[in-house]
Amino acid sequence: MDKLTQLRTFVRVAERASFSAVARDMAVTQSAISKAINALEADLGVRLVSRSTRNVSLTEAGRRYYEQCRQVLADLDEADASLKEAKSGVSGSLHVAAPVPFGLMFISPRVIRFHEMHPLLSIQLDLNDQPSNLVEQNIDVAIRLGHLKTAGLVARKLGESPFLAVASPAYLASRGTPQRPQDLVAHNCLAYANEEHPLEWKFGGKTAAQSVAIASNYRSNNLLTLKEAAVAGLGIARLPLWMVDPEIKSGLLRPVLTEARTPSYGIHAVFPSARQIPAKVRLFVEFMQHELGAISYFLRHQ
């Protein structure tokens, strides 16, 4: 195994913390991975990896070497990508992840268009409402809505997604229309289970910023199901404008508490931290910034 392959193997072992996982990723035997690490350590004259029956971890020297190798490989991949791009356009593979409803409505059609612009690029699009581990799943770029919490990632803001509270005319006729956020105490609210505090709604807009404790007998980890429940008259839901605008225009849903709208959520493209951003990722992010910036539902990124 040549030195470059040894370095790539070492970086993957450092990130996966498992010889067997890396062996599966690279379609080789576990002994081949072990031999590559042993050869690298012998060449350097230092121990990089601590092995036990249960896990694999880096030594102090291994951690320092990993950071340097990761950057060297990123620079090398960027150099290769730049030459290929100059010669024949963007090529290789691009792995994109996005949440399900937003991905279906706004990301998938634009990924198709991006592929038409760069036909030599092989694209994989994964839709999942649970945040993906970009390193473990080899994801190049993920689209995320809301507040970013994952450390060690680079983020580029694509825009803002306004949210608002809505309910069906039938629900409002039977339970009344709340005039202030505090009025929600007398209502049933449909809670988004993926939020850190699903039973706490924040409001701002023309009123002073405030948080309100809500009661809910219906929760879901998918915004589309909350929309369906709101249309069915189960309660008041807090949903993005892009998801409920057709129902508002058709009269199936009505906005409430319009003087105290909920804060908008950021739309970000995130990718593993690196000094040089791969050309395919840079072009895709720039494309999405332009595309989403032209949609009236979204506030332009700053």
CATH topology of the largest domain: D-Maltodextrin-Binding Protein, domain 2
- Major β-sheet profile: 6 strands, mixed
Q: Given the C-alpha coordinates, what overall shape results? A: elongated
Helicity range of the residues? 40-55%
Beta-strand level of the residues, as a percent range? 15-25%
Rounded to an integer in angstroms, the radius of gyration calculated over CA atoms is 24 Å
- Mean of residue pLDDT? 86
End-to-end Cα distance: 47 Å
The succession of helices and strands, N to C, reads: HHHEEHEHEEEEHEEEEHEHEEHE
Q: Please identify the top-level CATH class of the largest domain.
A: Alpha Beta
**CATH architectural designation of the largest domain:** 3-Layer(aba) Sandwich
Name given to the CATH homologous superfamily of the largest domain: Periplasmic binding protein-like II
The total tally of domains equals: 3
Low-confidence parts, pLDDT < 50 over ≥5 residues? none
Number of helices: 9
Q: For the largest sheet, list the strands in their spatial order.
A: 4-3-5-14-6-15
